[in-house]
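User: Reviewer 2 asked us to show a designed sequence for the structure in our supplementary figure. I'm pasting the structure tokens here. Could you produce the per-position amino acids so we can include them in the response letter?
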């Protein structure tokens, strides 16, 4: 299903974090959103996943930070911008957070099962679990290990596995390569390719430009909450301004 973000604006108090941002990801594509730390990448993914509104409610009266969210998000031609986070997950659009964020005190298998909490069919859950183990054999090996003790790369794979357990059709992956050693990055790169090969559409954010450019076929460049450019790696690299000002090359 197609994802379409239109005029997305997010303000934290009076700080503009996203300024009328738009993007489109067609079904079957793998697209990246690149930009430096603080550009607004995580905020964009969280807003799409319905988590910024959720935060707005939860912050009311506690921290006092006022969050303003404007714009439209469509998934499969349906306007999902006013849906709750779990309703968005149920449609197959699932966020894989930065550094995986597992429930640290639960073991790997339990973390994966949490991903399937919207599913009541035990047989189907077991089937998804076997699929995830096939894709990430290391998770099967570590299934009884407490998640707080697995490595960074394994945490990211666990998070992707958890999304697959939720029957994701479209993955939003936030900075998969952050903090990983080169060999681990390479391994994860191949696994993300595998996930895409299973027919899952992917929008991922990255600070590592070469990781993003090698993996995805089309890219959006975000800087200080503004969408500065988009295109293939060749197109973006051919643009001197984009190269120097936004890609830091
Ligand atoms: N909950 C929040 N409250 C206030 N400011 C926030 C919050 N989350 C993020 N920000 C600010 O929004 C900007 C964009 O952050 P973020 O979306 O995390 O960027 P990125 O993922 O590209 O590093 C940053 O300046 C950050 O400090
Ligand atoms: Mg981020």
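Assistant: Here is a per-position design you can include in the supplement:
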């Amino acid at each position: 299903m197609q994802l379409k973000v239109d005029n997305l604006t997010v303000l934290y108090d009076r700080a503009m974090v996203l300024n009328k941002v738009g993007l489109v990801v067609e079904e079957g594509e793998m697209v990246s959103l690149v930009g430096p730390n603080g550009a607004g990448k995580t905020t964009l993914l969280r807003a799409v996943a319905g988590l910024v509104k959720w935060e707005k409610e939860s912050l009311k009266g506690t921290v006092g930070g006022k969050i303003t969210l404007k714009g439209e998000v469509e998934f499969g031609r349906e306007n999902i911008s006013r849906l709750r986070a779990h309703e968005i997950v149920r449609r197959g659009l699932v966020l894989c957070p930065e550094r995986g964020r597992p429930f640290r005190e639960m073991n790997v298998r339990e973390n994966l099962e949490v991903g399937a909490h919207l599913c009541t069919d035990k047989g189907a859950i077991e089937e998804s679990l076997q699929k995830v183990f096939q894709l990430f054999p290391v998770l099967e090996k570590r299934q009884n290990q407490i998640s707080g003790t697995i490595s960074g790369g394994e945490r990211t794979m666990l998070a992707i596995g958890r999304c697959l357990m939720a029957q994701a059709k479209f993955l939003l992956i936030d900075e998969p390569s952050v903090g990983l050693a080169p060999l681990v990055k390479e391994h994860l790169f191949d696994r993300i390719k595998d996930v895409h090969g299973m027919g899952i559409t992917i929008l991922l954010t990255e600070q590592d430009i070469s990781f993003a450019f090698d993996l995805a076929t089309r890219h959006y460049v975000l800087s200080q909450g503004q969408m500065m450019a988009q295109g293939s790696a060749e197109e973006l690299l051919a643009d001197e301004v984009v190269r120097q000002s936004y890609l830091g090359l």
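For the response letter, you might also mention the following. The pocket of adenosine-5'-diphosphate (ligand 1) is lined by residues 12, 17, 35, 37-43, 65 (CB under 6 Å). The mean pLDDT is 92.
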